[in-house]
Specification:
2 domains
């Protein structure tokens, strides 16, 4: 959001969220528990964590932010995997990555973990398919450039990593 709309817009949004009672929780598990115990109306979590809530039987629904035409889009986090240069078993590592990217494996990860399949041929079940997610158009390098200053700003506002 900061990369697309600038500091003034983003920090004003943070101030409005804080004024409305925003608070961090130390983990996804704590967020799930607090949703009920603290009588929160909303919890902001990633898609796979929403699906964990759903699989646990929690009475939850999902809303994807800024999906309207011309909207900002939603940040989509990536799980990454790589073959390390000089590793002992590069062929096995490549085979493992190929297996992770197979439609059947992607279907399994969607059903068991709520992960969004990257293979359009995978069955996504209740998980929104990647093709139906309007994503923010920001290069990862730009997000990385803003990471440390964003963390510092949020920590100064009391939104640093939550303590258990």
């Amino acid at each position: 959001m900061r990369a697309l709309r600038g500091d003034a817009w983003k920090w004003a949004l943070v101030d409005r969220l804080i004024a409305n009672g925003l608070r961090p929780y130390p983990s996804n598990k704590h967020t799930r528990e607090a949703l009920i115990a603290d009588r929160n109306a909303v919890a902001m979590v990633n898609s796979s964590n929403f699906h964990v809530f759903l699989m646990e039987g929690a009475p939850v629904g999902e809303a994807w932010l800024d999906q309207e035409p011309g909207g900002l889009g939603t940040n989509v986090e990536a799980h990454t995997v790589a073959v390390i240069k000089g590793c002992k078993h590069p062929d096995a590592a490549r085979a493992f990555i190929d297996w992770l990217l197979e439609a059947d494996t992607q279907t399994l990860l969607a059903r068991m973990c709520g992960d969004t399949p990257v293979d359009p041929g995978a069955e996504h079940g209740t998980v929104r398919p990647l093709a139906r997610i309007h994503r923010m158009d920001v290069p990862l390098a730009r997000i990385t450039e803003l990471r440390d200053s964003t963390r510092a700003y949020l920590s100064a506002k009391g939104l640093g990593p939550a303590k258990e």
